[in-house]
Amino acid sequence: IKRKNNNDYHEMSHGDIAGTVPVFAEIQAGIVGEIAKFGTELKAAGLFDHTLVYASSCGGTDSGHSGNRTPAFILGNLGGKLNSGKLKTGDVGNSRALVTVAHAVGETSINYVGNKKETGPLAGVLK
Fold first, then answer.
1. What is the pLDDT of residues 55-101, one digit of tens each?
2. Which of 11, 39, 102, 112 could form a disulfide with 107 if both were Cys (CB 3.0 to 4.6 A apart)?
């Protein structure tokens, strides 16, 4: 995406700079589009069902880096270890999403990442 102003991505992500929200949204859409293209290529190569791709943002519902309600998604099925097609909404923090990924790849001794208030994997994501 061609740079449209002098603000950097990080500054725009906070949403505090007038006029940058549409530019930031366009950048985010481009990033998600590239991830979708990657998922399509994995499917075409027969690798999608054996893959786990985790994508997230560092910002949640506030303009800081708290990890509260951070948007994230997982592509793939990791060889049948994940319940595909699940949508988790609400107050799901980045810590539990990362713990879920850790458990999916066999690191079950990890029960929190940074935030000790949110422990364990997200219910219903792992088989």
1. 887 665 555 566 566 777 888 889 999 988 777 766 566 778 889 99
2. 102
Q: What angle do CA 100, 53, 96 make, to 5 degrees?
A: 20
Hey, what are 19's tokens? Answer: 């006029």
Place of tokens 């999403």: 97
Q: Is 11 helix (H, G, I), strand (E, B) or coil?
A: helix
The residue with tokens 């949508």 is: 87
Q: How many residues does the chain have?
A: 127
The predicted model scores a pTM of 0.74
CA gap 100, 80 in Å, rounded = 15
Cβ neighbours of residue 43 closer than 8 Å, sequence gap 6 or more: none
C-alpha to C-alpha distances, 121 to 2, 15, 89, 99, nearest whole angstrom: 39, 30, 14, 5
Token pair of 113 as six digits:
């990442």
- What are the strands, taking DSSP E only, across 17-99? 52-56, 72-76
Instruction: Name residue, tokens 């366009």.
Output: 26
